[in-house]
Write a structure and sequence with these properties.
The chain is an alpha+beta fold. It has one domain: Beta-Lactamase (2-Layer Sandwich), CATH 3.30.450.40. The protein is built from three helices and three strands. The chain has helices at about 1-5, 45-50, 55-80, and strands at about 10, 20-25, 35-40. The protein has a three-stranded antiparallel beta sheet. Strand 1 (about 10) and strand 2 (about 20-25) form a beta hairpin. The protein is elongated. The protein starts with a helix and ends with a helix.
Length: about 80
């Protein structure tokens, strides 16, 4: 589902009463090892309002990717 849609849901699969939507944090080499998620009790989050939050979640993932890239660049510069 993540490869097709770019996000995934967890509808009480991990913990009863909890709904979650998650996206991968993009990686420069194309293979991500990080993700970012938003979760809430099912009485407060539905699939519909989770999808409404998807653009903000993707912006947060992009911001984390930029921080990670800057951090990696700084580490490489320190080693040189």
């Amino acid at each position: 589902q993540v490869r097709e849609l770019g996000y995934a849901f967890d509808n009480e699969e991990f913990l009863p009463g909890l709904f979650c939507i998650a996206v991968l944090v993009p990686a420069p080499e194309g293979r991500s090892n990080m993700g970012i998620a938003m979760q809430a009790p099912i009485m407060r989050m539905t699939e519909r309002n989770a999808l409404d939050s998807l653009p903000a979640l993707r912006r947060a993932a992009s911001a984390l990717a930029a921080i990670e890239a800057d951090s990696a660049g700084s580490s490489q510069a320190e080693c040189a």
